[in-house]
Design brief:
57% helix; elongated; 159 residues
Length: 159
């Protein structure tokens, strides 16, 4: 009885390995077909289109039927790609705020602080403002008109 259960277990393990192998082969075949299924002439063009879609938040440029042509026209001729500045927002942490405070106390300008910490000058200004290191501009209240400024004494008419 115990031997029968062990034999069943061994057969199940063998079946599992065979199934995993079959799934792996089918997956590889399906992945190899993806570029042609989506109308791309080569794997490189397909990968470039995927990267472009990921960079644009899942939105492909151009019309749906022109994916292969537009990517082929834009595909780089060499393997060297130009670095593109993304303009991502800086994460202002408590440590960054402390460094801004320290550098500001040392007399550094906002531009110098921004360059040293790798954040923008407006971000430095915002941090300094939040820490109370700069005065915010407050418009002066408009002066009251002369008529309202001082009450006029009534003059009695002459008799």
């Amino acid at each position: 009885m115990f031997n029968d259960q062990l034999a069943k277990l061994e057969k199940a393990k063998a079946d599992l390995l065979q199934l995993e192998s079959k799934i792996s082969a089918e997956r590889a075949a399906a992945l190899a077909k993806l570029p042609s299924d989506f109308g791309f002439a080569s794997l490189d063009l397909f990968i470039a289109a995927l990267k472009d879609a990921a960079k644009n938040g899942g939105k492909l440029k151009g019309k749906a039927g022109r994916g292969a042509k537009s990517v082929a026209a834009k595909a780089p001729k060499t393997s060297v790609t130009k670095a593109v500045k993304t303009g991502k927002r800086a994460k202002i942490t408590d440590e960054t705020r402390a460094q801004v405070k320290l550098l500001s106390a040392q007399g550094k300008t906002g531009e110098e602080i921004a360059k040293a910490l790798g954040i923008s000058a407006p971000s430095v200004q915002n941090v300094k403002k939040a820490l109370g290191l700069v005065k915010s501009r407050v418009k002066a209240a408009p002066a009251a008109p002369a008529a309202e400024a001082a009450p006029v004494a009534e003059v009695a008419p002459a008799l």
